[in-house]
Structure formats: structure tokens, C-alpha cells
Design goal:
By secondary structure, the chain is an alpha/beta fold. It contains five helices and six strands. It has a six-stranded mixed sheet, sandwiched between helices. The structure holds adenosine-5-diphosphoribose (APR).
Length: 181
């Protein structure tokens, strides 16, 4: 099995364009769409995505649900609900970590081999980017160290500030510079 650091990549771009088996949506607990990356994914997937989401009955913070990808290049969308940042002493870090873990667990259950994550909770939910990036990389590393079936995790950064934060977090977690695979 290739080590985790060779199966995680930092990508700058638009998650709706990723041609991975699954892309992860930073949703809200209603799963009925919203702004930000949620809005972009629903716009790109088309109306059938919302139809399928309606039948799911929502999703608690920290958990994940899977649907088809419809008009997206990705076959599946894994919807996860990140925590709203309230200062960091209300279990936000643990809930964000659970979003990554539960999304990856669901991916494995559905035979997903390649998956792309946005930077969950770092937009409207105001989770500090540096801390969120560290949690994302740490959780993906820990999961991939135990799970050979996931071939590649793409951490999709929507702009240079995000990729800087992810590269900094990469140095903190792996103790070396991120190298484009
Ligand atoms: N591709 C990749 N990343 C994106 C895209 C995109 N097309 N659009 C936005 N982002 C990034 C933002 O820059 C931010 O870093 O996704 C990250 C998450 O931001 P939000 O989409 O605001 O999500 P979040 O902070 O988790 O808040 C969720 O916002 O859209 C609503 O319905 C959603 O209520 C929920 C809340």
C-alpha cells in the first residue's frame, strides 16, 4: 500500500470540475442546498440532486450522506455537515474531524476509490482556515494509513489563500514541504 502522503494531494480549483469517483459537499443539516460550495454543486449537478436529497431527511453535524452525482463528472456526492465555528470550545474541532472520517467511511462502503474534499466549514461557517486545514490533512492521513482501498484524496482549495494554508498544514503534519505528485 502506498503511504498516505503519496495518496493525498492539494489541488487549487473548483470541486465541481473534479473527475473523482466522489466529491464532498459542505452542506447544512437540511441537505436542501445553500450558497458557497453547496450552491455550486447543486447548480452543476442539476435538479435531480435536490430531488434525491429531499428523500434523505437531513443530516446531523459531523455525519455524511451519499447521493448520485447526476450532471457532475463525479459519480457520487457525499454530503457532510460541518460545525459552525463558535470559538472552538464547543466541540467544533472534533465535529470537523468527524466530517472527514465519516465521509471517507461512507466512500469505502460504496466502493469509491478517489474522492475530493472542499475546505469544509471554512466559509459561511467561519472555521479558521489554518486549523481546519490541519484537521483535514491529519484525519485523511490517519484514515488512509488504515484503509488501502482509497487510492487518492484531493483537497480542493478555492484560491491561493487556501492552498497556502493547506501547504503550511502539510508541513506541520508530514514535517516536509508538499510536493506536487
Ligand atoms: N470549489 C471548491 N471550494 C469551494 C467552491 C468550489 N466551487 N466554492 C466555495 N468553496 C470553498 C470556500 O472558499 C470555502 O473555503 O468551500 C469552503 C467552504 O465554504 P462554504 O461553501 O461557505 O461552506 P461552509 O463554510 O461549510 O458553510 C456551509 O454554507 O453554503 C452554505 O448550505 C451551506 O449552510 C451551509 C453553509
Amino acid at each position: 500500500m502506498k503511504p498516505a502522503k503519496e495518496r493525498i494531494r492539494i489541488v487549487e480549483g473548483d470541486i465541481t470540475k473534479q473527475e473523482t469517483d466522489a466529491i464532498v459537499n459542505a452542506a447544512n443539516s437540511s441537505l436542501l442546498g445553500g450558497g458557497g460550495v453547496d450552491g455550486a454543486i447543486h447548480r452543476a449537478a442539476g435538479p435531480e440532486l435536490l430531488e434525491e436529497c429531499r428523500g434523505l431527511g437531513g443530516c446531523p453535524t459531523g455525519e455524511a450522506r451519499i447521493t448520485k452525482g447526476y450532471r457532475l463528472p463525479a459519480k457520487h456526492v457525499i454530503h457532510t455537515v460541518g460545525p459552525v465555528w463558535r470559538g472552538g470550545n464547543r466541540g467544533e474541532p472534533e465535529l470537523l474531524a468527524a466530517c472527514y472520517r465519516n465521509s471517507l467511511k461512507l466512500a469505502v462502503e460504496h466502493g469509491v476509490r478517489t474522492i475530493a474534499f472542499p475546505s469544509i466549514s471554512t466559509g459561511a461557517y467561519r472555521f479558521p482556515l489554518d486549523q481546519a486545514a490541519r484537521i483535514a490533512i491529519k484525519e485523511c492521513k490517519a484514515f488512509l494509513d488504515q484503509e488501502p482501498s482509497i487510492e487518492e484524496v484531493s483537497l480542493v482549495c478555492f484560491g491561493p489563500a487556501a492552498s497556502d494554508a493547506y501547504r503550511k498544514a502539510w508541513r506541520e503534519v508530514f514535517g516536509e514541504e508538499y510536493r506536487e505528485g
